[in-house]
Amino acid sequence: MTSLLVIIVLVLLAVALWQLTKIFDLTQVGSSSSSDDSQVASDNDNNIQGYLMFGFLAFIYIFTIYGLLKWGNLALHTPASEHGVLVDSLMNITWVLIFTVQVITQGLLYWFSFKNRGHKEKKALFFADSNKLEAIWSIIPSVVLACLILYGLYAWNNIMFVDKDEDVIEIEIYAQQFKWTARYAGKDNVLGKANVRLIEGINTLGVDMSDPYAQDDIVVTELHLPKGKKVHFKMRSQDVLHSAYFPHFRAQMNVVPGMVTEFAFIPTYTTAEYRELPFMVEKVSNINKIRAEKSTELLAKGGTALDPYTFDYLLLCNKICGASHYNMQMKVVVDTPEDYKKWLSEKTTLAQDIKAAAAAEKPAEGEAGATTDSASTIVKDTVKTVVDTVKAAVAKVAMK
Amino acid sequence: MSAEAHDHDHGHDHHEHEHHHKDTFITKYIFSIDHKMIAKQYLITGIIMGIIGIAMSLLFRMQLAWPEESFKIFNVLLGDKFAPDGVMANDIYLALVTIHGTIMVFFVLTAGLSGTFSNLLIPLQIGARDMASGFMNMISYWLFFLSAVIMLSSLFVEAGPASAGWTIYPPLSALPQAIPGSGTGMTLWLVSMAIFIASSLMGSLNYIVTVINLRTKGMSMTRLPLTIWTFFVTAIIGVISFPVLLSAALLLIFDRSFGTSFFLSDIYIAGEVLHYQGGSPVLFEHLFWFLGHPEVYIVILPAMGLVSEIMATNSRKPIFGYRAMIMSVLAIAFLSTIVWGHHMFISGMNPFLGSVFTFTTLLIAIPSAVKAFNWITTLWKGNLQFNPAMLFSIGMVSTFITGGLTGIILGDSTLDINVHDTYFVIAHFHLVMGISALYGMFAGIYHWFPKMYGRMLNKNLGYIHFWVTAVCAYGVFFPMHFIGLAGLPRRYYTNTNFPLFDDLQNVNVLITTFALVGGAFQLVFLYNFFSSIFYGKKAVQNPWKSTTLEWTTPVEHIHGNWPGEIPHVYRWPYDYSNPNHDVDFVPQNVPMKEGEEVLHH
User: Fold this and answer.
1) For the ranges A382-391, B60-69, B99-108, B443-452, which has the lowest average pLDDT?
2) What is the pLDDT of residues B401-457, one digit of tens each?
3) Is pLDDT at A386 greater than 60 in this prediction?
4) Mutate to test the interface with A, among B223, B384, B505 (most CBs of A within 10 A)
5) What CA–CA distances, in Å, run from B202 to B134, B294, B533?
6) Where are the beta strands (DSSP E) in B283-419?
7) What CATH superfamily is the domain A169-355?
8) Do the chains contact at B317 and A63, CB–CB below 8 Å?
9) Which of B326, B500, B578 to mutate to test the interface with A (most CBs of A within 10 A)?
10) How big is the A-B interface in CB pairs under 8 Å?
């Protein structure tokens, strides 16, 4: 309802403005000569529009400053990975360059517009070209960009190429509509082979259990990483493209069905440490304030209150992957190396899980029939609903 | 001037009676082979598609600002199935995003912009009677119309229209199990695009042949207005890159319908393993962006040409660095075909390729910078006439710079890692190619409306249209940079599942408010446009005192453009405020005075 009102108000506003211009036009009728209704800009128009140009320059500058003050702190802060520091420093250098160029060029553009607003008696300067000027503004960008390219490529090579001999922890990130899973390589630090054709029962990742390297693999739904150790991610998808995005670690890589993609980084703050950083304390308290306000609103409407927020690193999907793309996430925890070891040692391996599942199935075989029954009822119900919906839709069309 | 036009008119009436006695309503307005009528057909179709595309964006912006709230308007426009109880469904959100992108990029800014002004201006500005093949030109428009109808019809398909994003990456776009829109909706999308590409190729070939062969006497390549240069180069890029998209679309159709595995491999979905083996989605990305990146220059180059021409006319000054402008257009065109990989830094392709594409991508900033500085210098010490077209041209330079600068971040593979596919990208490309190209299109419409319809647009409505649009465009896309830097991914139906992003919600509300106000004020333009066609003030022959040849034709359209002989050209198109002449503009068909210096043209 409110939205409809908003739209009505906007339409009325447009009508009102249009009427105002008509009134404005009418007031001009008697006062000036016929040149005014030629619909070509007059000296008066040039003057007004020239001042508006100057005003717009002010708008751009003020809006930029306002944006930086109001929303500047929304941007991701303090990278939580080693290479992130490199990325952020390149980013900051680029920002300085961008702001300098932006302020100067927009300033010149609108200042010239204001300064040179047209007038009948004036004649423009016939200034067709200047090789010197062209050279200046080809060479300066070339040099500046060359520096940026060199820095960028240096950083890119550092980030993207993982040395084979390096001591790294291998972890598989596995994507499917709309869920992430992780597989740890276990004691041998080598991931067992896998293929979607081997997906069966609780072996949802299609790990090849005949591969000796696969025997100690561990499958989990919450990603734990040790601080200060290089983690080498190998990524697989079982259905469509996904993108593994770790914003706080400045890391992202698409997950592509049919191939294995890679990314590596070294976490530098444990979750507990990152929560304690002053900017994060402030951010979380701000978010909780917003959530509390929203909760009172929800409670008033008879809904349930929102849980208060504590910070956790996240892995999000950042490549459109289907209807529920907007909620495909996994919690990431960075532990101290000791805690990490302890956490991992408490996990059972996939081989143990499969064995346990097989053992559990045997005595429960009697119940299995019942489960199948209920499953088929569900399918039947679904089909019935679908058929009903279609029928209703057809009936509707027919009625029209 | 107008007396002269009248004379021409009388002369032509006579002429017309002899040759065009069988001009019926159908041959004049529907299956016309006159380039001016085809231009108008492109423009009206483009505007209608634009209304639909922008309306879609307003709908999903409302969803983003007030997630999962019920709006009567959703229910009215989307129906019970797509918006039950007025709450937009999540897959329909993606469908709206997808079709908005497709319509705006291809149907509005490629066909609507380039189709309109290439058709209108190429014959008129080079001094030709019509396009090289008027018939092919007509076919080109009607194929475009057909593809637009098919695209719109996909909105009414049971499972919804294509919803895999405008980039339609497989497997999502190939498997109806993955998203409902990848069924019939996607088939229609692909068919529509295949027809669109055929249309675009026919148009482009025509533009190229016409510019090369049909220039009037004296119109050398270095005397062409910059508009013609950009249309010419745009057509070349189109001919080179659109066929690659066609091949990608065909292979995708094969994968979808005939079980081939060009783009698909190792897929387990909806509880079963599919038979596909050995294909790669990355291959599709390469093919798509091999067109996709040149496409953004196909969109922006014509806008640049229009802006250059309008700026020179309204500054009463030659465009600064005419030859540098041509060189930069050529450089941009060349580089545009070798930078596509910057859309794929983190697609899983070899990181070494990423380095190469970073290098070529940042190179493209140099010709772009040259263009921006040349425009600014054109304004310097000019005698600026602030007609609405001029305002939009200045606005275009402004948004092109603002949007272009953030390209330095996105083009750098290292920095792209963390802003890839966030709202930062949305802010960047909407400013640099969306808004800038739209401004170029608006500038062109305000400037050449008298040429198209023989009437003037109302300038005061034009001023209101410009200023509200200018403020709202920055209001929408400037804050988006910040939420992008906060790591907010694009194409999320709602952000409420991430408490991390709760502090971005009020920014989203602000963006949507600006979008709604800006969208509403486009109605001012639509009213101005459609009412001026019938009731606008009658135009004189050369209202903006311009030098190019289209303003030497009579106001009333005739077949063959000039009633008598085609004018000859003696000078370059930018003799504004030439100190050797008393008037501040010298049309191209005015012979050189004795002893007048020829400026290498």
Assistant:
1) A382-391
2) 999 999 999 999 999 999 999 999 999 999 999 999 999 999 999 999 999 999 999
3) no
4) B384
5) 11, 18, 29
6) none
7) Cupredoxins -  blue copper proteins (2.60.40.420)
8) no
9) B500
10) 412
| The Cα angle at residue A129 between residues A128 and A132, in degrees rounded to 5 | 155
- Residue B582 sits at φ, ψ, to 5 deg, of -80, -40
Which tens digit of pLDDT belongs to each residue from B72-90?
999 999 988 899 999 999 9
Q: Please, which residues 317-336 of chain B have a Cβ atom closer than 8 Å to chain A?
A: 317-318, 320-324
Helix H or strand E encompassing A334: strand A329-335
Residue pair B8/B558 in contact by the 8 Å Cβ criterion: no
**In the predicted structure, residue A27 carries a pLDDT above the cut 70:** no
Domain at B36-279: CATH code: 1.20.210.10
Alpha-carbon distance of A289 to A275, in angstroms, equals 17
Nearest residue of chain A to residue B523 (CA atoms): A14
- Strands across the sheet containing A313-317: A223-226, A329-335, A313-317, A242-246, A251-255
Q: Which part of chain A has CATH 2.60.40.420?
A: 169-355
Please judge whether B179 and A142 are an interchain contact, meaning their C-beta atoms are less than 8 angstroms apart: no
Closest among A307, A76, A80, A350 to A203, alpha carbons compared:
A350
- A55-61 LR contacts (CB < 8 Å, sep 24+): A56/A110, A56/B467, A56/B470, A56/B471, A57/A106, A57/A107, A57/A110, A57/A111, A57/A114, A59/B471, A59/B474, A60/A106, A60/A110, A60/B398, A60/B474, A61/A103, A61/A106
pTM: 0.90
Q: Which two structure tokens, joined as six digits, stand for A254?
A: 């698409």
Of B264, B358, B420, the CB nearest to A252: B420
Question: How close B477 gets to chain A, by Cα (Å)?
Answer: 12
Task: Give the chain B residue nearest A248 (alpha carbons).
Answer: B487
| CA dihedral angle for residue B175, residue B180, residue B185, residue B191, rounded to 10 degrees | -10
Nearest of A81, A90, A100 to residue A151 by alpha carbon: A90
B318 and A101 within 8 Å at the Cβ level: the answer is no
Mutate to test the interface with B, among A74, A81, A101 (most CBs of B within 10 A): A74
Paired sense of beta strands A242-246 and A218-220, if any:
unpaired
Alpha-carbon distance B106 to B108, whole Å?
A: 6
Distance from CA of B566 to the nearest CA of A (A): 28
**Cα–Cα dist B442/B393, whole Å:** 9
Q: Does B399 touch chain A (CB under 8 A)?
A: no
Would you call A242 helix, strand, or coil by DSSP?
A: strand
Taking each helix axis from N to C end, the angle separating B436-453 and B35-65, rounded to the nearest 10 degrees, works out to: 140
Amino acid symbol at B454: G
Give, in order, the Cα–Cα distances in Å from A161 to each of A154, B355, B364.
11, 12, 26
Instruction: Choose the CATH number for B291-534 among 3.30.1330.30, 3.40.50.720, 3.40.630.30, 1.20.210.10.
Output: 1.20.210.10
Q: Where are the domains positioned within chain B?
A: 36-279, 291-534
Identify the three-state secondary structure at position A205.
coil
